[in-house]
Amino acid sequence: MPAESGKRFKPSKYVPVSAAAIFLVGATTLFFAFTCPGLSLYVSPAVPIYNAVVFLFVLANFSMATFMDPGIFPRAEEDEDKEDDFRAPLYKTVEIKGIQVRMKWCATCRFYRPPRCSHCSVCDNCVEEFDHHCPWVNNCIGRRNYRYFFLFLLSLTAHIMGVFGFGLLYVLYHMEELSGVRTAVTMAVMCVAGLFFIPVAGLTGFHVVLVARGRTTNEQVTGKFRGGVNPFTNGCCNNVSRVLCSSPAPRYLGRPKKEKTIVIRPPFLRPEVSDGQITVKIMDNGIQGELRRSKSKGSLEITESQSADAEPPPPPKPDLSRYTGLRTHLSLATNEDSSLLGKDSPPTPTMYKYRPGYSSSSTSAAMPHSSSAKLSRGDSLKEPTSIAESSRHPSYRSEPSLEPESFRSPTFGKSFHFDPLSSGSRSSSLKSAQGTGFELGQLQSIRSEGTTSTSYKSLANQTRNGSLSYDSLLTPSDSPDFESVQAGPEPDPPLGYTSPFLSARLAQQREAERHPRLVPTGPTHREPSPVRYDNLSRHIVASLQEREKLLRQSPPLPGREEEPGLGDSGIQSTPGSGHAPRTSSSSDDSKRSPLVKTPLGRPAAPRFGKPDGLRGRGLGSPEPGPTAPYLGRSMSYSSQKAPPGVSEAEEVALQPLLTPKDEVQLKTAYSKSNGQPKSIGSASPGPGQPPLSSPTRGGVKKVSGVGGTTYEISV
Amino acid sequence: MQLECKTYSRDYGSEEVGQGLETESSASLVHNLQELRRSASLATKVFIQRDYSDGTICQFQTKFPPELDSRIERQLFEETVKTLNSFYAEAEKIGGSSYLEGCLACATAYFIFLCMETHYEKVLKKISRYIQEQNEKIFAPRGLLLTDPVERGMRVIRKMKSWWAAGPGIGL
């Protein structure tokens, strides 16, 4: 037998089924040959007929159970995979009749296993309503062939009982000729029958109970519904009728594909576009943003309520809808922006384009070295871009994929091959899979993804308008809020938090602008950064200031050193694996969580993910590689760990950048607060951290974020 | 199982797609479904996921994907999905006909399956015809294509979107 790749002919797996077949057919044949003739004479000719019918039934069901496709799911195609690709969480939760059921990502088959579906390691297939893999039939028992397996067990039990009973009858009739051939053979058959009766009857009884309860063997053995409610049961009668009386399910593999011809020709019908849908372009920093925000909010709410998918068990609310609702607006805008950006003259690297503030007169104080900063920043950006591309850090990549490929800048775009929709849906599925504590991450990721595209738009607008502000950088909120945030003149009390990607250096520079006295402390920490953000908004500067103070006040957190290493190993492996996503389930599983979390934890991650993360590297971080991984890692942990982990991870991530940890903590806190529907009472950075939010300047500033979220930022 | 809705997109930035589509867009296009499927990688795909809220019965989410917001009316889409759901409910219905079918199959030692197709399969054929019809009448004029969920194990309905249908500056 020719060995296929990855599939070797293993004779050992055919032993049980062969033995079963041999015993079954052999014993029955002997019974028919030796016992039945006598019985038909002494008892009735109906005996062999009955036994023949039963035996035929056994054989038919045995064959069906053995050869029938149990309901194997075909492997998911590439395009579907991209939706849920790396960065997607390991589990996706669905609510079934009020009960949260987890759908696990199958690394081999590349989709989220539907409820009751399981992957059979023997057959290497995901099977619908997987019961178990039966060695005696050498086949998985699933939705399609469970009925035949069950009937096989029933009929086999009946057959064994019949053979044993009638054999006993025969022996009783021939007590005086026990050494005779027929009697001896009959006794042998009886022994075989008696031997097999106990396990078979036991198994039959077990499955009768399962059918009555509406459970599969897999569920029973793994104790899924132990002490809980089984959402798949419809009552005993309905369960039994469903097993025995329902129409056999179709097979999914090997279906004939019909060639169909469909004419697609323009002009294409289009639904009437409502006003709300039209406002895509953001010409103004604030006005349109508000429009879009309200629109997106509305759509988010609507879709949210409708979505049955995704959500960490206790809390409700699918981000899928939220995200997709947002994405529509974003994508609508991004296309325009692509054209806008294309017209932009500055021959800067793509990433550089998306940095607000440097390219033109910014609203903030004019910086003498802004031009040089621009250039230097551009250079540094180029490097991070290439690094990003080479590392293919998922967190950076998933965000920008919101835009259509064409739109993506060459630097970004090369590494991405996803449609905005696919990336969006991926992110949404990603978000949807979050656990309780993930809601924040989810919101953030939504926001971040929104912000990414929004940032493009806003940048495009700004480059055109010539007025840039870093306010957009500050807000981790969704893109719609970008403009709203930007539109409003930077409020005087600066926001207490900034993008996690703003390095301490930047922060220091900012602070230096505002408070010259702080300048000396900044440069001492690090080499001069090639990138300078001279026109960071007041908010950033203020927050940086705050952090500086806090950094000086609070001691460095312990255990931070561990994280970088972990982050390194965790994340650096993931970029490679991220794009070869789920070949090995074990590694994938381990990587999934970090991967998944990556975009989630960051408040402004996605938008800043590309520029910022890369920027961070360019900003003088001595290790360009680990930086993104750190950040990515922090993201991955953020979604899973408790907030302390997040803040720590973020701290660690920023440590090479010499960002004051408080900055991270603040951001974490704010990012967390972003996830909450309403503002948190006080901007607490997170448990375990010194009270960073203690307003040194006295007062808490409320900043509105996306979707009506308000953040209270200590000022 | 997903409902898959394909949108064919012209990627302005991508040479391969752009060239191919630009030459074609000027003329009326007759696309073989196979061709559409081949160019699936170039199409934007919207996946409509299964709705498991009622258990493992086959039904799809009627939630309107935002990506199709400007492509198709919400009502049309929902109606299509609801009809599909009703078809699947009919296929999985446990009633007299399915019981008799089972009995007959048992009586003939399942040889009847060689001659006759099951009730489910019959309904699947109906669904396939319905999807084709919908594609021709409703989705293709909008530059969309609905794929039969059974091709993907009934996990997803895929809609493929065409960018030719996209107006300027709109890319979903």
Provide an overview of this structure.
The complex is a heterodimer of chains A (715) and B (172). With 715 residues, chain A is mainly α. Chain A has a domain at 11-71 and 135-245. Chain A is 55% helix and 6% strand. Chain A has 27 helices and 10 strands. Chain A has helices at 15-42, 46-67, 78-83, 146-173, 181-213, 217-222, 236-245, 275-278, 287-306, 319-343, 350-353, 370-391, 394-398, 410-413, 420-432, 438-465, 471-474, 479-487, 504-514, 521-525, 538-553, 562-578, 585-601, 605-618, 624-640, 643-654, 661-675, and strands spanning 91-96, 99-106, 111-112, 118-120, 125-127, 132-134, 139-141, 261-263, 700-704, 710-714. Chain A is elongated. Chain A starts with 14 loop residues before the first helix and ends with a strand. In chain B, strands 1, 3, 4 and 5 form a 4-stranded mixed beta sheet that branches. In chain B, helix 3 (74-91) packs antiparallel against helix 6 (119-139). The two termini of chain B are 23 Å apart. Strand 8 of chain A pairs antiparallel with strand 2 of chain B. Chain A: Residues 102-222 form the Palmitoyltransferase DHHC domain.
Quaternary organization: heterodimer
What is the 3D shape of chain B?
elongated
Q: Helix segment count of chain A?
A: 27
> How is the main sheet of chain A built?
3 strands, antiparallel
Order of helices and strands of chain B: EHEHEHHHHEE
Helix content of chain A: 55-70%
Q: What is the strand and helix layout of this fold?
A:
The complex is a heterodimer of chains A (715) and B (172).
Chain A: H1 15-42, H2 46-67, H3 78-83, E1 91-96, E2 99-106, E3 111-112, E4 118-120, E5 125-127, E6 132-134, E7 139-141, H4 146-173, H5 181-213, H6 217-222, H7 236-245, E8 261-263, H8 275-278, H9 287-306, H10 319-343, H11 350-353, H12 370-391, H13 394-398, H14 410-413, H15 420-432, H16 438-465, H17 471-474, H18 479-487, H19 504-514, H20 521-525, H21 538-553, H22 562-578, H23 585-601, H24 605-618, H25 624-640, H26 643-654, H27 661-675, E9 700-704, E10 710-714
Antiparallel strand pairs in A: 1-2, 2-3, 4-5, 6-7, 9-10
Helix pairs in contact in A: 1-2, 1-4, 1-5, 2-4, 4-5, 9-10, 9-18, 10-15, 10-16, 12-24, 15-16, 16-18, 16-23, 16-24, 16-25, 16-27, 19-21, 21-27, 22-23, 22-25, 23-25, 24-25, 25-26, 26-27
Chain B: E1 2-8, H1 15-25, E2 30-32, H2 33-38, E3 43-49, H3 74-91, H4 96-107, H5 112-115, H6 119-139, E4 144-146, E5 156-161
Parallel strand pairs in B: 1-5
Antiparallel strand pairs in B: 1-3, 1-4, 3-5, 4-5
